[in-house]
Amino acid sequence: MPIISARCPHLRHRLAQINYRKPMSSLVGTKGKGSTCAYCESVLREHGLKTGFYSSPHLVHVTERIRINGKPIGKGKFVKYFWDVHDRLSQREKDGMPMYFQMLTILAFKIFIMEKVDVAVIEVGIGGEYDTTNVLRNVPIVGITSLGYDHTSLLGNSMEEIAWHKGGIMKKGCEAFTVDQPANAMKVLEERSVEKECELHVVEDCPKYAEDCIGHPYSIYKRNVSLALTLSKAYLNLKGLKEDSDLTQNALRTCSWPGRFQILSIDNIVYHLDGAHTEDSIEHCVEWFKQQTKHSKSRKALIFNSTGDRKSVDHLKILQKCHYDKVFFVPNVSRTDKSIADFGGGSKSIERCELHKEQWLKLLGGSQMIDSEVHVFPSVFDALQALKENQHDLLVTGSLHLIGAVLNIIDPNLQQIPHQKK
Ligand SMILES: Nc1ncnc2c1ncn2[C@@H]1O[C@H](COP(=O)(O)OP(=O)(O)OP(=O)(O)O)[C@@H](O)[C@H]1O
């Protein structure tokens, strides 16, 4: 976990010495950080600002995490800046090298400075108070998306503890915005805003036009879009710029954030990809899949995986609200010769898939589904081979890394921008 103060105390000091002349906008939360940042970035860019955008995790290529004007940084620049940062840091041997997420964070900030962005939109990694991104001090606008239970072994098991961590990104004098939260979480956020000496506002619903502009299910994304529009408007105001609703609508329409409620149709398979990994996200995801496939005659299939401290049995229970002809449990591995993203293969991940299979069958109890339709495969490629003979509506969910492993096979350059109308 990227807690600077616990594992790498020198880093905060070192980063604190960098003069971040460009104001940044930070975003934290449990659900919808990435998409809220993406909408926010798109609106600011559409209004003529040169944007930097730091997000995590990546789906296929690590360069997706660091974007300039909405586009992942090119490989050449990534490598050049990486070695600049690496060489500077390794001169101070006694401090040791930063860990993966810390390194990427330093790299992103360096790139934003060198590329002279007007504004940087920063998605927090895990938590907030102790997250690596929280070394930033010049952050005039911060946003907190919907809070829920995730990463509980790091942040705590209660809503209050989680809210305390998330509220840690508020800064003295900044303007902080959040969406409707459970009462106990909101109380903690309010206390944190007093402690941090800033104003906390709850955002209003976004204008009606947003519903026609966004490609994602509006009922779920309304909060994300409302927050994104408020954050970008606050930033534009700060810069003395006026929001133009035509530009905003265009920004919402053209914003691309793959791997979330994305539909791709390739050969016999209609892929429904959503990186839901909390209980209520999975709940939304199943509803969305049911809605999308209600008139379809194709067979239904599910590919699922979950990692970390998540209670997968609760997720599986929700996923059983839909009937599937085939259910595959697969590690976040695209092909067996190649694992991608941060959580790849290995015997432990297969063991976890076997456990998911066991849980699934146990939950089915009386079983409308015979055992042979539930399999563990070592890679996504193997699972897709087992589907290709017939027309399938396939749902892939449980982990964004799993979605990355699928995209790595079917759309490695993330070119098929998903813009599905509701
Ligand atoms: N407002 C929301 N309410 C419930 N679920 C949401 C919401 N927004 C996004 N999600 C779910 O979370 C998944 C990830 O979306 P997104 O990348 O925007 O969130 P995130 O908070 O950045 O996720 P991560 O924790 O992986 O970084 C989506 O695929 C969707 O299932």
TrEMBL record:
| Xref: PROSITE patterns | FOLYLPOLYGLU_SYNT_2
Q: Which Enzyme Commission number(s) are on file for it?
A: 6.3.2.17
Which EC class does it fall in?
ligase
Q: Where is the signal peptide?
A: none
List, alphabetically, the InterPro entries matched. Answer: Folylpolyglutamate_synth (IPR001645), Folylpolyglutamate_synth_CS (IPR018109), Mur-like_cat_sf (IPR036565), Mur_ligase_C (IPR004101), Mur_ligase_C_dom_sf (IPR036615)
Keywords (alphabetical) are:
ATP-binding, Ligase, Magnesium, Metal-binding, Nucleotide-binding, One-carbon metabolism
Domain of life according to the entry: Eukaryota
- Give me the reactions it catalyses: (6S)-5,6,7,8-tetrahydrofolyl-(gamma-L-Glu)(n) + L-glutamate + ATP = (6S)-5,6,7,8-tetrahydrofolyl-(gamma-L-Glu)(n+1) + ADP + phosphate + H(+)
Pfam families the record matches: Mur_ligase_C
Q: In which pathway does it act?
A: Cofactor biosynthesis; tetrahydrofolylpolyglutamate biosynthesis
Ranges for domain Mur ligase C-terminal come to: 259-390
The entry's family comment says:
Belongs to the folylpolyglutamate synthase family.
Protein name listed in UniProt? tetrahydrofolate synthase
The organism's taxonomy opens as: Eukaryota, Metazoa, Ecdysozoa, Arthropoda, Hexapoda
